[in-house]
Amino acid sequence: MSMRRVAVVGAGMTKFVRRSLETGRELAWEAASKALESCEMTLDDIDSVVMGSAPDAFDGVHMKSEWLADGAGAWGKPYMRGYVGGGTGVFAPAQGWYHIASGLFDTCLVVCEEKMSPCRPHPQAAFISIFDNFTERALGPNLLWIFALEMNAYMNRYGLKKEDIAQVAVKNKRNAADHPASLLGDANITLQDILNSEVLAYPVQRLDVSPVTDGAVALVLAADHVARRVTNKPVWFEGVGWNLDTAYWTDRDLSYPTYVEEAARMAYKMAGITEPRKQIHIAEPYDPFDYKELHHLEGLMLFPKGKAPEATALGITQRNGDLPVCPSGGLLGVGNPIAAAGLMKVAELFWQLRGEAGARQVPGDPRRGVAQAWGDLMQVGTVVVLGK
Amino acid sequence: MSMEKHVYPTSGLSEKDFEQKQVITVAWTPRAEYEWDEGVAIGRYLQGLKEGKLIGRVCHHCRRKLIPPRMFCEQCFRPTDEWFEAGDTGTIKTFSLCYVTWDMIRLEHPQIPAVIDIDGASAGMGIMHLVSEVDPKAVRIGMKVKAVWKAADKREGAITDILYWKPM
What we know:
The complex is a heterodimer. Chain A is 35% helix and 19% strand. Chain A has 14 helices and eleven strands. The radius of gyration of chain A is 19 Å and the shape is globular. Chain B is mainly beta. Chain B is 10% helix and 35% strand. In chain B, strand 8 and strand 9 (106-111) form a beta hairpin. The interface between A and B is large, with 69 and 56 residues.
């Protein structure tokens, strides 16, 4: 395949907040303008725009990407929306990548926005319609069920205890205390705090779960020849991958995300990665629930099946560990504005690889990182590998 | 140089802003009604439920016995071949004890959603349903369960024709 090299040259974001005064369009503008400012570019330099945003039902606005387009800087430009549920935030930059890799455009502004707060009385209401309309919805399911069912299957398969999993929430919420945009960063949170929190849907407790959040993140992507003019520290796309499993989720092995492995294999092949654990220096797997980080680390083949909890207990995934995982603070700490949360992970790799992560900076001059998101009906994996 | 300056000072609202009416909000309640035609495979499945049976579909190519039934095999991407009647017994593949409703109202007694692998279908083929008539603390992965049906004259061809599943 003859594909052009593509770099991330700028990144910006809003603060992640429980409920923003700003509309979704205003959030998108805040992030997009910060990203452009970060690389001293203007909208005139942008050839194309990709927007990522999750369910229209959060906003109560049908075809919300058209409504959000102005905020994403898409006026009068080639524009498209990517949407694979929670996987959107890592899918959108992959779409931005092929806009440029294909030779069609030299630059692309990728904006992911989510404003979950308008949905009353709780954004969970927006999720009832993901369940099968004939065979599931009449049972009155809520979104917590599928996470609890998957988490219990994972714990049972490998004989894990709640504390094996809750340590992920402690790590990420502590990491997030150093993130200037974070909603739930807490440098002093303890394992007992997580284990003592209210049981929502056993085995899921309140502090195992990321919060409802409003926010937006944006990246500026550029082709090789443009990137080198814009910055002396381009961060390159080395691989992208995505994969979907069947919507018959009750027919699957719920203890392992095969679709994440397939997405990772696609991205690793492109990046020439044959030994992920050695060749990847930072990981930002999707962590809407604490067990999901572990699940995804295994799907990304960074640890053998069932071994991510042990690696976490040994401190390997701490910011100063051998493989820092979610140094940003992840969704559990920074917050979970669905699509924006995924792109926040890619932005974190960008800042980490440029040495601009401030108090969160991972030591040892990391050269390559992987970000991953997950979504739809527990069936999609999206992966981006960045390197310098 | 840190990324700090690339974060916009977005305005987070607090409960106080609403109590003090510092923010104007606009509300709207959608009214949306849908009526779905039963479909070929699910239609037979729903008819089976009305008759007190769990009906699946077999793919002769991959030899999977599929439940819920489907008229095409998503893996072989060819038509499935015949109907089969599964048992109304199964094994709990995974479960939860859920103490909140979808709108986060606390429940005194937990609902017990579960994925139940259905006897007679291929290994690992399950459906989501509810478990009851059991002490929540006693529910285990691997537990054998049996469907508790609505009275025959009350069934309407819906997944709720099975009231719940109870331990065998």
